[in-house]
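G.,

No rush on this.
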Amino acid sequence: MTSIPLSIPRPTHPTGVWSWLTTIDHKRIGILYGVTAFVLFLTGGIEAMIMRLQLSAADQDIVSAEVFNQLFTMHGTTMIFLAIMPMGAAFFNFIIPLQIGARDVAFPRLNAFSYWTFLSGAIILKFSWFMGGATNAGWFGYAPLTGLEANPGNGIDLWIISLQVLGIASLAAAFNFIVTIINMRAPGMSLMRMPLFTWMTLVTAILLVLAFPVITVALIELMFDRAFGTNFFVVANGANPVLWQHLFWVFGHPEVYILILPAMGIVSEILPTFSKKPLFGYSTVVLAGVIIAFMGWMVWSHHMFTVGLGPVATSVFTITTMAIAVPTGIKIFNWIGTMWKGSMEFRTPMLFAIGFIVLFTIGGISGIMHAMSSSDAQQQDTYFIVAHLHYVLFTGAIFALVGGIYYWFPKFTGRMYDEAMGKVTFWLMFIAANITFFPMHFTGMDGMPRRIYTYGDEMGWSFWNGVSSIGAAILAVSMLMFVYNIVKGWRSGEPAGDDPWDARTLEWSISSPPPEYNFETIPTVYGRDEWWAQKRAPVRRGVPVGGGSGDDEGHDIHLPQPSYWPLIASIGLLIGGYGLVFHFAVAVVGGLIGMFAVYAWSFEPVNEPDEGSGH
């Protein structure tokens, strides 16, 4: 079917800052998510640098034990909930509608609400530094350390409220993307024709919907213990604090895959593009991702091998933890198979994708080591675990996310970054990450515990801690280079063209940056790697390159108009959250603001055609 050019109305939108405050365009929301998450990532990096400075030599006295506890708790919470997760959400927002041939997400205003609510949760958490002290009990919040007797200040309360608000944001986004991917794919895009990144987004969103209610229940119980004197985790009144560990890790281990599956999806997009080959074993990679998500619910107690669950439970979770390495290994071999005999082009995104595979494999191997409950008894709560965690989440997730930023940067901005600087940044980051985190294996096996703020010279840990701290400083330099390259490219980079990589998926078939409506006509999909097929055999596809056929022929394109009600609803949550900690009357005011905003939002029309559009 031949495409018919459409008359596209140009609605009058707010401009300047107000346009960003009221936007419901998925691309702008993706940029907001990405910039905010990266700024928060840098704050988490500053917290880590202070800790590394404190530990760089024996008997340091740069920060107190209490401040150090606050630093490692805020660092962990920031990196998990405020940096890696929302960086993934940034890609979901910008890329998913473009990859599936849609004009926007299913619920654009809910999408804006999820961002502003995420920002509200981040404000509640980070401003706790200035409101009597930040949380200090670890990002895992083990009872009874979080109880009122052990922790009478506001830090734990603000941590609880911030995670609850962040959970609302995550659930709103997850439901939105599930509906978007299931219902809004272009004609012909069956599930097994979806790009891998779209698949991993769908799996991640389902994990979010299932996992966050568990931590929500645990946080409500903890809040009731602190506010109303209930006894869910109060040991003196007969409670069992191991209940918290079960609830937290039933959420916490699927959370690990919520963090890493989007990274795997990004790598699965980069490797075929720069190998000039379709993804090797597409169906197997999809199945492996689904199996990882399913098995993620069966391994939580490997975080609790030293709690004393007994030999049967410990044996079962040892077996399941080792078994989950199989689908992960399948993905790694499929990625290698994709590169094998390909026409590889070692651009910056490709280097980060290969770096991800190498370093994530190292983290996976150390994970197998403490999947064995016998060896975990020695490694538990030592720096060996810290090394494993950072190889999985920094050299794993962050490397993939940085690679994704470089890969889609031309699509985000229409400009190119400095390729030479990008390659230097990769090698500096790759070397610095290994200098920082690999020595932690040695200090851990030598018995250095996690979460200690100082140590004596007689322990013999000064050398490797000094090496790690030097590596962290180099890592900070590489991050500053990355920021400079991105900002410079965004402001004055060379025009990139619409498809600078000769890529495979539909987002590259439209202009860069994409127009507000994404696709003039909704494309029809005939197979995987549809954009490659259109470029190489446009006659066989029956459509002009970059075009498509769909249900929109002969109709004007109408997009929902900007709205400030999602922002006001999120402000209500922010005020209400602070009120629950400081004064109940303030919480009532915040609740009323939020309810009024949702009420007004519900009366906004789904579509608001401009005057004179003919409708």
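When you get to it, here's the other one too:
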Amino acid sequence: MSAHATAAHPPLYAGGLRSWLTTVDHKRIGVLYGVSALFYFVVGGVEALIIRLQLASPTADVVGADTFNQLFTMHGTTMVFLVLMPLSAALFNYMIPLMIGARDVAFPRLNAFSFWTFFFGSVLLNLSFFVGDPPDAGWFGYANLTSKQYNPGMGIDFWLLSVQIMGIASIASAVNFTVTILNMRAPGMSLMRVPLFVWMALVVQVLMLLAFPPITVAFIFLMFDRFFGTHFYIPSAGGTPILWQHLFWIFGHPEVYILILPSFGVVSEVLPTFARKPLFGAPFMIFSGILIGFLGFGVWSHHMFTTGLGAVADTAFSLATMLIAIPTGVKIFNWIATLWGGHIRFRTPLYFAVGMVGLFIIGGLSGIMHASPPVDIQQHDSYFVVAHLHYVFFGGTVFGLFAGIYYWWPKVTGRMIGEGLGKLHFWLMVVGMNLTFFPMHFLGLDGMPRRIYTYATDLGWERWNMIATVGAFLIAVSVLVFFVNAARSLASKTQAPADPWDAATLEWTVSSPPPEYNFAVVPTVNSARPFWLHKYGPTRDISTRTKAQGTPAQPDNPPTRIDLPSPSSWPILAALGLALLGGGALVGLWMVLFGAAVLVFCVYRWAFQPLERTGHPTFGPAPSGGSS
């Protein structure tokens, strides 16, 4: 038997701990991102539950003021940087090469470095709990709350260093996926045949490449203020806190679209599959996503209407904020049109996708209200804004990502996930979400400011706060149902079929889970819906059974030899060196120098490590003269 022969379904997730630490396979890295994000989802959720317990009744004393400030800072930072972004990255890593017909990403080792850099950055952030000094200035870190004068502890240092490290991971990942999408598509896959999820991912990568440099500059200025005594944000020395707001929100509002566009892409894949009809107006959906990304850089100062920018600036940013509603509305109407007249199958992914559309509409409408400076000034820093934020991020991003998790779960795990528990998860979460966040609109209009840890009994806020707290615990129950469902699925011995949803795109042409090499034969694409074209022919009504040319399911074994990049320990060691370099600023100069030396050494060895070595993954027939 050839040494290079392979089984039809190689054991993708086999191997010990070392195989996971040194992997460069995009699918395993996607799993690592997903597991990390779900773990931090629980951590951030526990922080939110403590916040809600503190606010459930007037003059409660569950936690003190300082602890409350630390909790909402860590909750916001965790949910944005440790949950929503890496959960999107999990789907990007696993699905993009499969959806475009590639065997891996363009730079597999850089991909591994990106994950481990994120991981060590997240560990550094949470180490602040163990030294008793978590950050307490909000996830937005407004100056001068972060200055040494008002915040002399180490919490802000942990925060700024860890977020900078995770920013490096995001930029590296963005470069990788931009190159992958633009250069590694299967033959025949023109840009207008690229799946909508991949298109939205491409827009997200461009946004990260453009948005992360300003926040990096903001963090460098803050680091210099705190470590070297400069005065970029100190008014008494000629600096200005408004500089931080501009730099932060030039990143912060594109960040909103970095978080929501992946969910838009997921919904644009799920709805056509379960409506059994092509996505309505797909080209308009593509261009509306691009326009959202472009306009996202022109709306940052609508977060700053209360800072006194002046009538001209307020007018410009108000108009830009109203304008960005147009491409967003295009997406919503096209999703509705996709469902209209379809042969709808009510499965769990569809529930979450439709739920995302409805809940995001509520968040979007309250966002349009804030395009008006007088309305924004009235509601600024009130719980109305908290409600808006969570309807966008939780109702939009979280529900959309759960649609993707349920949709691609059988592809990733090779197991189906329970429909009954999945629908129970949805209904508990949608009821809990509305119970939690809709009352916050009333609290905000009644004058309750955000970021307060207690309130007096005569203000009349206790009823809505108690309802919100009950809703938060209902969300927690729904997440517990999901984890039970996931555990039952993973324990099942029933193999999921390659195409359980009767879907249209390339990832469903391979086994579940996919083989390590993805495709035994690189597919040729001649449609935006290549698998549907093969199964049903060139008709809008896919219920007909006329066979036609398209992209068929993959053969069991590759007909030619496939070489894959060898595992490498240098990406994880380089990421560790980077974490030591950044975190070393909290210890001393010697640690910074040691981390820099480790980083340089590992990058050097990484650069000169050959792509192939004895025992690296090969599949298919042995080369001529191969061993047996």
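Residues 65-100 form the longest helix (36 residues). The beta strands are 562-563, 618-619.

Enjoy the weekend,
O.
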